[in-house]
Structure formats: structure tokens, C-alpha cells
């Protein structure tokens, strides 16, 4: 049985989609695949109740017969972290619990996929970073990373050193924009491979995997649409409008694929946002309906206006959470990532040497 742990240099790198896509590719090769996420980090509240959708999606897509407490034995909630700081968590016992459930889940499997926490460092306070988990479970490590600038390599090299060259299978760069794709393949990859760090894949950015549509955002926020404008544009980031009109316009013009969040009574900011080509929608807080001139301008520009009742800070937090998690947790996204890995990554280097253990011979009659 082989074990592969998929970790990342930071949060929201597409780690879940890549982990499950590898599972689909392995199943297509006839392998019996298991899954585990030792540290649940996507939680509903600080009380420890988990709503982590990753193991639930894995259970469905990979046809895994297991309970949530097995797939996700450590609920890494704020309450858990506070307890660990106060000495209420026993590191050795936690490791034993993970090992116990891993042994049950991996029985008769050809390949075990282990998904890391928020980043490779998550779990350090209880000696359960992803490097620690890899050592505990004797796993090879695939490190998922973003890349937009050469300075990103500092964090990447630090992660490689923490994981160790003896465990690292290689790097998969995900969501790589066209502007840096050639640089990554012709300069960065050779640089890393010269340091004995294999680059297993350079996966291009896919717009429909990078954000959420305005309609999806409206549905998740429970927003009312104040305009008759198309809602199929993608939003990848949020800008909070809290400055004067001239400063706001300069600020908004420096971005793309953004939603501007501001009070429904801030007409000057709303007008400035509508002048910026990179603004795809307005989210107006406080339950205030904008003046008619703003609605008219928005419809003329084809920019939808969403009305929500919450305050700007809470709406911004909720919207960012939707973008960072919402597009990587559905079957369609995983299937698209399966295609991208097949086309742009060395899947054989990860799972190619594993043979199915449950093949049956043909009848001898």
C-alpha cells in the first residue's frame, strides 16, 4: 500500500481538488483508493462542530465507506487550539488516534490519499504539521503551490526544507496565470530541479475555477438583485469602498474581476466603482437601496448591484470565505481538475508505479 499526502504552501491553493482528482485518476487505473484528512480545519464554529465538506465530498466521489470521525479524527477548531495552548491536548495520544484510524481506512487499499491542513504548517502546536503527519504515516508528499512572482519561492523553499527531500515527491504549481507560465516552466522549474526539487506539474489558471459567479455570490449571501444585469461574470477578489470618490476610483482601477463592497448610502463610492472596468458587481450593505442614478448607471454598464442587510465587515468576511472555498468543493471542479492534472502534470510520477492488488484472474474453465 502506498500513501501520498497532499499539502500546500498556503490556504486556498486548490489542494482539495488536486487530492480528489488524483483519487479519480487512480481509480481509473483500477486502484482501490482510500482517503483521510487528519486535521479538519473548515469548521462552522469555535465549539468544535465540524462542517468540513472535504471528507464528505471524498466519501462520495471515491466511494469510501467510512465515518466522518475516521476520515477526520482531529477537529482543528479554535477551541481545540486554545485547549492545546493550555495543555489539555496530548500530542502522543492525538498521533495514536490518527494512526489508528489510518490503519482502519488503509486496510486492503492500494493507495491512501491524505489531505493536509490549511497549510503545511497547520498543526505545529501539537506536533502535527503535515511534515509530522507524513512521517507518522510514512507518506510521500506532493506540495501544491501558487506562483505569481519570484519572491514566492522563498516560502516554497522553506516548505521543501521542512518536509525533507526524502519525503517530497515533488511540486505541483496550480492556477498559474498566462503572464508567468513561460517563466515558471523555463526558469523556475529548472532552478528547483537543480536543487533536487522535482516539479511534477504546472497547471494553468482556469477562470471558472478561480472564483464564483455573481449569481452564486448573491445566492450564498442571500442578497437581493437591484438591477437587471447579467450575473454570470466571475468574481475573484473584493474591495472595500471606504474612501473619497477620487481616491476610490484610482483604487478600483488597479484591480480586475472584483466586487466592491460598500454601504448602500455611499453614492460617491458606488459611482466611482462603476467607472472601473475591473469591477464586476457592487455589494451594498446596511439594507440601504442606492439612489436611482446609481441603479441606472449600473444597468447601463451591465454591472449587477447586490443588496444585503449585514454590515460591511461581516459581509466582506463572508464573501471572501465563499470565494476561497466555494469553487473547490464540488464534483464538477474535481472532474475538471482531473483533466488538468492529466494534461499538465506527471501523474505517473505520483501513482504510476502502484499496481492494483485485487485483480482477479480469468476463469480457467
Provide structural commentary:
This is DRTGG domain-containing protein. Pfam families: AAA_26, DRTGG. InterPro entries: DRTGG, P-loop_NTPase, Ser_kin/Pase_Hpr-like_N_sf. With 365 residues, this protein is an alpha/beta fold. The chain has 2 domains: 233 residues, P-loop containing nucleotide triphosphate hydrolases (Rossmann fold), CATH 3.40.50.300; 110 residues, HprK N-terminal domain-like (Udp-n-acetylmuramoylalanyl-d-glutamate--2,6- Diaminopimelate Ligase, Chain: A, domain 1). Helices cover 44% and strands 18% of the residues. The protein is built from 16 helices and 15 strands. The chain has a 6-stranded parallel beta sheet, with helices on both faces. Strands 10-15-14-13-12 form a 5-stranded mixed beta sheet, with helices on both faces. It has a two-stranded parallel ribbon with strand order 3-4. Strand 12, helix 11 and strand 13 form a beta-alpha-beta unit. Helix 1 packs across helix 15 and helix 11 packs parallel to helix 12. The protein starts with a strand and ends in a 14-residue tail after the last helix. The C terminus is likely disordered.
Provide the fold topology.
Layout lengths: L1 E7 L6 H14 L4 E4 L2 E2 L12 H9 L6 H4 L2 E2 L2 H8 L5 H16 L4 E5 L14 H8 L2 E6 L6 H12 L4 E9 L1 H17 L4 E6 L2 H4 L1 E2 H8 L2 E2 L8 E2 L1 E4 L4 H8 L5 E6 L3 H8 L4 E7 L6 H10 L3 E3 L4 H15 L4 H14 L2 H5 L14
Parallel strand pairs: 1-5, 1-6, 2-5, 3-4, 6-7, 7-8, 12-13, 13-14, 14-15
Antiparallel strand pairs: 9-11, 10-15
Helix pairs in contact: 1-15, 11-12, 12-13
